[in-house]
Write a structure and sequence with these properties.
With 410 residues, this protein is mostly helical. The protein contains 17 helices and 4 strands. 35% of the residues are buried. This is HTH cro/C1-type domain-containing protein. It comes from Methylomirabilis oxygeniifera. Belongs to the short-chain fatty acyl-CoA assimilation regulator (ScfR) family.
């Protein structure tokens, strides 16, 4: 009898397969075994023979060490998706597996880098979304701005604001038209996460997605995740997050002072200042009763006639906001010689392309060994530690990283 693979973790195989979007039968065909064998591997009934293990690693593009690592057993909290339909089930499974990889990356980085503390307002809201009114949501959006002291004007960079306040934001390909973004308050590390779709590169839409997910983190952190599977509750929760996003990005009083005409060309003028879509401004104007439902209907007819549903004016000119938190953390490790690429990939046995995609890196981990920074001894408690403090972006931003002791490499 041929030996299996010592230390093999079947849950890792399932995670990797779903992360690659492969049905079990497809993986079975690719590695030359039966679907029943794949099921036995994933349920740890048996382990793959060495030659099959090599095929698994090659097919799923992951090092064999990945399949021997333990996997988190912490039950997840409520993960907020725009769509819970059967059509998005595989895409959601893929997204959640890659989200698990992201949390492993963040856990690793925290061995060396102090992330910004979580600083999100907690309004102690009820666990029943029916008890949260639209007027209350408008007020909570205003109070959130006051909490962060950002006034009532346009928010320059929504993603940077979230990162500055302890929310880990990433962009990833979510692989489904209706999965614009998702978020979770993670129970394992107490960190709020927002994952934005990188396959929809329109700045105003992405800003709205980020504000929408912030709405979930603020409004719905106490909601039981079982309610998300109820269509009526899910629809209400999504509508509430939409309302919060509109109120957060475009406060009522500020919008009222600039809304002077119920026509699309007037709203087009406001778009580059507020960096929100014309469609959102129409909806916001109706929500705030600046216009009647009949006026809104005429605006929507004109909007469709101009073919703006596919692409609005200025959509190609406004820059999509990019997360920088994880990029800066990896730059700190590499530029200061705290870790080499080889050490990073040893502690994070993932495909380097996946790490780069999740952390928005640009080839730092896929360079040849000749490009590696030299290893040197660092005194992280004195002069070098001070030198290692990085700001997240331009001067004036508040995020700094304090380097911690190097991770043991043995």
């Amino acid at each position: 009898m041929k030996p299996g693979t010592p230390g093999f973790n079947g849950a890792r195989l399932r995670e990797a397969r779903e992360a690659r979007g492969l049905p079990a039968i497809a993986l079975a065909d690719l590695i030359g075994v039966t679907r029943a064998a794949v099921s036995q591997y994933e349920n740890s009934v048996q382990t793959p023979r060495p030659e099959v293990m090599e095929k698994i690693a090659r097919t799923l593009q992951l090092p064999q060490e990945y399949f021997r690592r333990p996997i988190s057993r912490i039950e997840r909290g409520a993960i907020f998706y725009r769509s819970m339909s059967a059509a998005t089930k595989a895409a959601r499974a893929r997204a959640e597996c890659r989200y698990s990889w992201l949390r492993e990356i963040v856990t690793y980085l925290r061995e060396f880098v102090q992330f910004p503390p979580m600083n999100i307002p907690d309004f102690n809201l009820p666990d029943d979304p029916v008890r949260i009114s639209y007027n209350q949501i408008e007020e909570l959006a205003t109070q959130s701005r006051q909490f962060w002291k950002i006034g009532e004007g346009p928010i320059g960079n929504v993603v940077r604001l979230l990162e500055n306040n302890g929310i880990v934001v990433v962009r990833d390909e979510l692989g489904a038209e209706t999965l614009d973004a998702f978020s979770e308050f993670n129970a394992e590390d107490g960190t709020p996460y927002i994952i934005l779709g990188s396959d929809k590169a329109v700045a105003v839409r992405s800003r709205f997605d980020a504000a929408h997910e912030l709405g979930h983190l603020i409004l719905h952190r106490n909601i039981n995740k079982n309610r998300l599977s109820r269509p009526t509750d899910h629809q209400l929760i999504e509508t509430q997050a939409h309302r919060f996003a509109g109120a957060f990005l475009l406060p009522g009083q500020a919008f009222a002072s600039e809304f002077y005409s119920a026509n699309l060309d007037a709203l087009r003028i406001l778009k580059p200042k507020w960096k929100v879509s014309i469609a959102m401004m129409v909806k916001r104007a109706e929500d705030l009763e600046f216009i009647s439902s009949e006026q809104a209907k005429r605006l929507w007819i004109n909007y469709s006639r101009r073919r703006w549903r596919a692409k609005e004016p200025l959509d190609g000119e406004l820059e999509v906001e990019q997360p920088r938190l994880l990029v800066r953390a990896f730059e700190l490790l590499l530029n200061e010689g705290i870790q080499t690429c080889e050490q990073i990939l040893s502690h994070l046995p993932l495909n380097p392309n996946d790490i780069e995609a999740l952390a928005t890196l640009s080839g730092q981990l896929t360079k040849t060994s000749a490009d590696e920074p030299s290893v040197r001894v660092l005194d992280l408690t004195g002069r070098t530690r001070q030198k290692s403090q990085h700001q997240i972006d331009k001067p004036g931003q508040v995020i700094q990283f304090a380097a911690r002791k190097p991770h043991p490499t043995g």
